[in-house]
Amino acid sequence: MITSAQNTKIKHLRRLMEKSRLRREEGLFVIEGVRELEAALQNGFSMHSLFLCPDIFLNPEKADMLKKQAQHTEEITAAVYGKTAYRGTTEGVLAIMHQKDTALERMQIPEHPLFLVLESVEKPGNLGAVLRTADAVGAHAVLVCDPLTDVYNPNTIRASLGALFTVPTFACSSEQAYNWLTKHNVQLVAATCQASTPYDRCDYKKPTAFVLGSEDKGLEEFWRQKAHCQVNIPMLGRMDSLNVSVTAAVLSFEALRQRNTL
Question: How far is CA 131 from CA 7, 26, 194, 237, in A?
């Protein structure tokens, strides 16, 4: 039983939660919560270390199931858990996971794919919310281009409610994403405030990738020039743009609406 937050294993776990550089160097990241951990395990992620708080985690059968899938298991006190976990409602479970070695080239493309492309996303909460939308509409992948936040940031995982593990997610450069999408004949639809075409006037039944920029700068010229079409979401108020996760939801559900009429 680990009884001190100064334990070397706990300090390592906390550093992984806080340091994106360490996550990249070691190929590890941290999950807290049963729902998120089960989503990761069901979608091919493997567990390095499991940290269970028996005072909080009261399901022995599920505990045994999780222990069988971990390389190492540690029990921790409620005090240590309280000082380590970001949330107090994650049922006494923390886990260090192995990152997946994902490459765009190995992805199998369905007949009518739908992708979300995010350029220079900065806030992990926004990325997590977009991933939830991608899961909800059955998007086939999310491409995070030139990212300013780590895909495995604990706040991204938390905001996604585990959707990070159910939707294939790739971090790459804009050029890599463009070349790969073009190779597979995917229509590029850029969301911009300056576009004159309303978002519901385009055909999304064909292979489509929605390209969204950061909230403060919008899309860079690279994607504006490469896009097959640019669309906007009409707004009646004084604001000129929506949160990137809201924009992703509006566009994605329009694509789902169109495709459900096939």
Answer: 34, 24, 26, 27
Report the percent of the chain where pLDDT is more than 90: 77
110: CB partners within 8 A, 6+ apart: 140
pTM of the model as a whole: 0.91
| β partners of residue 246 | none
The position carrying tokens 């694509």 is: 255
How would CATH label the architecture of 104-259?
A: 3-Layer(aba) Sandwich (3.40)
Encoded tokens for 166: 């159910």
Under the phi-then-psi rule, with left for phi > 0, alpha for psi from -120 to 50, and beta for the rest, what region is 162? left
239-256: b or e for each residue (b if 16 or more CB lie within 10 Å)? eebbebbebbbebbebbe
Are β-strands 187-191 and 229-232 bridged in parallel, bridged antiparallel, or unpaired? parallel
Describe the crossing of helices 244-259 and 124-137 by its angle, rounded to 10 degrees. 10
Distance from the first to the final alpha carbon of the chain: 57
Give CA–CA dist 188/204, Å, rounded: 10
Q: What is the DSSP letter of 243?
A: -
Could you report the per-residue pLDDT of 196-217, keeping only the tens digit for each?
Answer: 899 999 999 999 999 999 877 7
∠ CA 21-117-240, rounded to 5°: 105
CATH 3.40.1280.10 domain residues, the chain? 104-259
Q: Which CATH architecture has domain 8-98?
A: 2-Layer Sandwich (3.30)
- Match 């899938």 to its residue by tokens: 69
Q: Cβ atoms within 10 A of the Cβ of 40, count?
A: 23
SS3 91: coil
